[in-house]
Specification:
4 strands; about 110 residues
Length: about 110
């Protein structure tokens, strides 16, 4: 009985057996790494596409179709609520710039 137990122990702890176990473990780790890398790549590609789409939506050249223009006083972009009566300012898009003058300020949906 002791001899049989000793033989099993020798077989289980043999260098060849250890090599086989290491190979199995390495293959498992390779598969796990490959799966995780594919998952990360998938989500990063999805994130990249989302950023590209947001850029395209916000690109002034693409927004011109919607009536988009920016307002500028001198070299500084400003928001419309910064304009005061009699101010001169530019309304522009990617291809056209119009010098304008504020004749009347209407705010609050009036």
């Amino acid at each position: 009985m002791i001899l049989i137990h000793h033989q099993k122990s020798m077989i289980l702890s043999s260098p060849l057996r250890k090599i086989e176990e290491f190979e199995k473990e390495i293959n498992l780790l390779k598969n796990q790494l490959k799966n995780k890398m594919n998952e990360i790549i998938y989500f990063k590609e999805k994130e990249l596409n989302s950023v590209k789409n947001a850029y395209e939506r916000m690109n002034p050249k693409n927004r011109e179709k919607e009536g988009f223009a920016q307002v500028r006083i001198g070299d500084k972009k400003v928001s419309l609520n910064c304009i005061k009566k009699d101010d001169e300012f530019y309304v522009e898009n990617a291809t056209t710039s119009i010098l304008s003058k504020a004749l009347k300020i209407v705010s609050g949906g009036q």
